[in-house]
Amino acid sequence: MDWKDEFRQKLADAGVEMFQNSSSSHGDIQSMKNELERLKERAKLKQAINQQPPMEFTLKYTFTDVSKIGDGDYKESPMEYHFGIPWCIHIDHRNDHLGVYLQCKKHQPDTPWSIKCSYQMEIVHPSGRHNSKQTEYVYQEKTGWGWPEFLKWEEMKKEYLVDDQLTVVAHVTIQKIIEI
User: Fold this and answer.
1) How do the domains of the chain map onto residue ranges?
2) How does pLDDT run along the chain (180 residues), one tens digit per residue?
3) What fold does the segment set 55-179 form as a domain?
4) CA dist., res. 180 & res. 158, Å (int)
5) DSSP state of 23
6) Is 86 helix (H, G, I), strand (E, B) or coil?
7) In the Cβ-directed half-sphere of 2, how many Cα atoms lie within 13 Å?
8) Spatial distance between the Cα atoms of 172 and 88, rounded to a whole number of angstroms
9) Which region, left, alpha or beta, applies to residue 65 given φ > 0 means left and ψ of -120 to 50 means alpha?
C-alpha cells in the first residue's frame, strides 16, 4: 500500500469519501490537502476538549436549626453557580444518621449532558476539627450524590453542632463537562 492508499484509507475511516482515480489532477490533490488540514483541525479541537483543565470551586454553608431536622427530613443550602452550573449542599436526617450530598441542579431535559467530578465533603467544627469523605461521580441528570450515613446523628450533635449550627464544605473538581 503506497502513501496515497494509506491517506485514502485514513480519510475513509474518518467518514470522508474519496475518489479512487490514481491519475489525480492538481485540483484533486489540493482538495485532498484541504481535507487533511480540516481533519487535523478537527483532531486538535477534539484533543482540546478532552484535555480541558480541571475546574475547581468550594461550596461552604452553615445550616441552622439542625437539631430540629426530623427523621426523614432534609435541608439544602442556597443554590450557587460555578462554571455556569447550579450546585448546592444537601443534608438529611435518616435512620439516626446525618446524610451529606453534593447536588447538581442543572436542568436540561432535551439535551444529554454529563459532568464528571471528584469532590470532598466535610463537616467542620469552629475549632478546626473536621470529618471528611471523598468520591468521584458522573452527574447525568439533576441529582445528588453523597453519603446517607456520613455520621451518626448523635455523634454529629455532640461533636460538630455548635449553637444548633453545622458547617458543611464541599471541595469540588470538575474533570470534564460534556454537552451533546
Assistant:
1) 3-50, 55-179
2) 676 676 666 666 665 554 444 445 556 777 777 777 776 666 655 555 556 677 999 999 999 999 999 999 999 999 999 988 899 999 999 999 999 999 998 877 777 888 999 999 999 998 989 999 999 999 887 688 999 999 999 999 999 999 999 999 999 999 888 875
3) 2.60.210
4) 47
5) S
6) strand
7) 2
8) 11
9) left
